[in-house]
Specification:
Layout lengths: L1 H19 L2 H21 L3 H10 L1 H11 L10 H20 L14 H21 L10 H35 L2 H12 L7 H21 L3 H21 L1
Helix pairs in contact: 1-2, 2-3, 2-4, 3-7, 4-5, 5-7, 6-9, 6-10, 7-8, 7-10, 8-9
Length: about 240
Amino acid sequence: MKEALVYLLAITLAEVITTTVAPLWGIITHITVLVVAILHSALVSRQPQQQFLLSLALVPLVRIISLSMPLGNIPQIWWFPIIYAPLLIAAIVVVRLLSLRAKDIGLSFRLFKVQLLLILSGFAIGVAEYFILKPEPAVSELSWQVIWLPALIFLLSTGLVEEFIFRGVLQCTAGGLLGRWGIVYVSFIFAILHMGFLSWIDVVFVFVVALFFSWVVKKTRSLLGVTLSHGIANSVLYLIAPFFF
């Protein structure tokens, strides 16, 4: 438990440095956390610790890749598949190394009533976060011909890949080490990674949403609902809400 808190503080510090000091120093700090977590996982003997530390290494990797990619001349909507493709590969490698089963990480397509409610809540989550952040639209106009591809990108990147990493792999290993506190731990890390929006209200909002998502995954053992809800929420946030409000 103490080690998990140390890593949580280290990741939080790295995010603070990234947003308030300089992205370069943030990358260096995240690289340090990444290397230490991997080496630490190789040195401990208990399996729950090893699994947790290796999966936790995915967290600094998210920021390292997102900050170090040369994306300046590429349309912003294409940043997502460029960043999230290597993250998905890394997460799959971790799953294979840890010998996690599909059902352990929520790779189930069973549909439950609570998932249907969760999917619909994606629209409300997207609108609520829009009023917090008020981002510029990611597309030039609101039409199906224009938004279908960006919406698909959001679904497969922020929806599928983020949920696979956080509510799938990391929630599984954190639960094995921290028990019921694993959900809170993963939700807090997920919220901290939103510090880049420079809004503490958004960090708190994301933490609450992440807790809700984690609870649903724990109840259903499926990432289906949270993946669709997350993708819908970001599509509403960046593609739809800016044209209505």
